Amino acid sequence: LPIWQRIGVRPAAVLGYSLGEYAAATVAGVFDPADAMRLVIQRARLVAQAPRGAMLTVAAPASRLAGMLGTALDLAADNGPLASVAAGPETDIARLETQLAQQGIACRRVPTTQAMHSRRMLSVRDRLIDLIGSTRRQPPVVPMVSNLTGETLSAQQAMDPEYWGDHMCAT
User: Are the beta carbons of 121 and 47 closer than 8 angstroms?
Assistant: First the structure.
């Protein structure tokens, strides 16, 4: 147990951002810590096998960014009124970067070689689903907020391997 749990601190709810949702699920009781570590390592190996790509943080709402993505890019994250992330092929991210600069919209590359939370992860999604499906899961004992919906996950969602596949490939 983390030290804060050993001294009696109990969270009212948990959430984690992107890969951090695995840590949140572990604290919530969905995954055993050793299983979660194995999942994170195996997930990283799968991600490395997906087509390379790029990510770009953008100081604009998701609604504005969505209209600029074209057919090759995806909205990877909707982080708030002035914080969105685009993901996709490097050349298309470079095009978007130029377009944003011309419009005076601040943006910054995410230091990664993969386009997380995008369709570029679809090629490894089924293998992640199989991996999660073969891992022991339990209903959360602490409420857990979903990265996909911003709402509290149901026990069924938290334990559903498809949820974790969607988590890797969707906004």
Answer: yes
